[in-house]
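Quick entry, no commentary yet.
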Amino acid sequence: MEITSRELDANLILIIFSLKKNFNVLLGDSSTFRFLLKKKMLLPGIVLTKSITHGKKKSELHDEFKSQGFILTSIDHEHGVLDSLEIYKNFFIKSRVDKKELEKFDAFFCWGDYDYKNLIKCYPFFKNRFFLTGSNRVDAWKNAKPQVSIKDNTKRVSIFSNFAFSNNKFSEKKIFSLKKEAGYYKRCPELLTQERLFLNYQKKLIKKFVNLVNFLVTKYPNYKFLFKPHPTENKNFWEKKLLNSKNLKILSQENSVSLIKASDLIIQSRCTTSVEATINSINHINFIPVNGKHGFAKFVDKISNNAKNKSEVVRLINYLMFSKKKDLKKIKKLNKRVLFKNKIPSSEKMSLVFKNLSKKINHNKFQIFFHIKIYLFFYELYYDLKSNFYNFLYSYKNINKYKFEVFNKEKLYNEILRYSKIYKFNKEIRVRKLGKRFWLFEN
């Protein structure tokens, strides 16, 4: 797991269905797995990772798993299914599904017909490795619970920003440097030009987005506005630019779909939250005041109520806030890209693939988890001391801490217990903390 706010609930649901198939499940970050593999402390199993191709370190991690007898599977959480066809084929697939890395994988889970068919066209030799299961994240979107307290009948409008380039925790130079280091521009040289276009587009859009939010807060003083920046964004930017108003609150930790479910309406700009809102029958506005030829997430326009200026936003708010009418054509279009109307949960389909793949693994040995806990205790103690010393000397701040939170056991147990009731899993679940970012789930 990389980003908990994005992936935790989806993984917990997948864990439920994996437990149903008599698996034990380890949930952790890549650095912890890397350490344990180096110490050869893990018995072979099935690995689910959030992308196939990233950089040299990720590739080496795959090699280490393979050398120790593990089976690799993946679902891409950046997915690309909202991009225009040209962008998806020429940029997303080229940069994120490299043939050399794909060869190491036994299964790649697809969100819907769109990515499934295009990936098979691109890699016909590997067609048996692509599975049309849908995404476990969609299961989480469908079953999320509102996390924002609703104490009155005040109308709530949630606004989601999506400026991962123009307002990132990293500088622009650092973003492009990291992507170059990870090999994106080597695999797809044209991507650099395309992303520079996208950066310029976001720089223009973010100014209009700020103006829109400040305008709406004043225009609708009796509505409550909840603003959530993208997890990779610099929250300080919004705290400086947005009005300090009683009816506006900037949030950061809440899961986006949980916030959507507590809303009467959402506003976004070509963001995945448009999909989450559609799946949960929450009306949404797609604010697109700037013309862009970049092609990223252009599919959102086809399933949204689009507004090109503040006047159109106001007109849509006044209509959508009180309308419950569903657009069945848009729902059908979305379901072709992102499976959500399926009767069988995507997590169930994914776990069936795991079960079939597990036949290739020798299960004669027994994993000793106590040894892992001891090793991780000393590893994390050393790592914390080293980090604190480094931070003291160089005033370094780790901006990646937002990714994988350090949970308390009760929170994880309560969440997975909630999902076990939803999916009628009646066996007792044991949750054990083996490290700060390493958890064991077992029957």
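second:
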Amino acid sequence: MVSNIMVYKNKTIQKHTRGNWFARVRHSGKIISIYGRTQLEAYAKLKALVDRIESEKAALSGGRLLRRVDGLAVPSVGAVAVAVVEGAGDGGSAQGKGKRTYTLREWYDEWISSYKAGHVRAATLTAFRSQFRKLKSLYDVRIDEITNLMLSKAINEVSANRAKDAVHNLLKQLFAVAFNNRLIEVNPAASLPRPKQAAIHQKRAFTQEQERRFIELCLTDSDFEPFIICVLQGLRKGEMLALKPNDFNFENGTLRIDESYDQAHPEDMQTKNQASNRIMPMFALTRKILLRYRDADPKERIFRLTDTMVQRRLARLYKLDADLPRLTTHELRHTFISRCHEKGIDEIVVQRWVGHAIGSRMTKAVYTHVADDAERRYIDILNGVID
């Protein structure tokens, strides 16, 4: 009988409980996961990843490695061209004869394929494409000829405030990597100011009284239960939609967050970043709600909603109280963070609970002490056991 298991260089393709296929590769102390709708798709992605890692090792042995990006050491782009320049005489200038030059469009494609594809969520790649489309005026300009003024003008041509900020961040990444790979002598985005319009945007959240009224409304209809989870646990919408019964540990009173659901890319269940994978306390009211799903199919998401269904339910909820601010699901997460700050919960604990990156090694060391001595008290505070 022919085995249906596919293996590439001792890495096995496995079938997920959700029905798609996946494999995991350990590299530089981290686990990198790849997913595919079919076994063949997952195999192709696995092969590309393993081959890339092997190329990296070869680059290391040849002295061509320039930097580490997203936890994966990446050989310098145009390494052969760099070698030609360094041995060409006349000082070996990085912009000398024989150096590979890129237009902005060519460099974006290279950056995506070398640094992002296989390392970030499919939804993130889609967002990058959307942001890059706003830079059409610079598509065919060589990156070594682009100036700070040209980038500023391109950003100012973007109308929406959030889009300005997103394009600004994309340009910072693109040119930082180009500079570190010695494709340009000067980084025109290094001193690129953040759009002032984006700084005006204020994060909204419920007051304590508004949150109380919101939760009371949610308890009137089981359709509104997902929003209680968002506001009481501080989950992102995708994290809430990805919850399954095997994520609940009622014995320990914890909730595991290690997947995120995106309707546009249902096969890609990765969370936003590594810090997003976490185990957080299951607060009292959340526990009561999730107990109803304890015996549900562990392979299925408990809130099988589309984005449209989420928006319609939230709109229906707000019609019950015209005085409540119309917060989005992500702003319900802001409300949780605001409550934590108002109750004096340590910032390091809040960061861990909501899946924000904790800064330095020292901060992580401090967190270990804080968690051991104070986290139980913080949980009791949010549960209303103590003031």
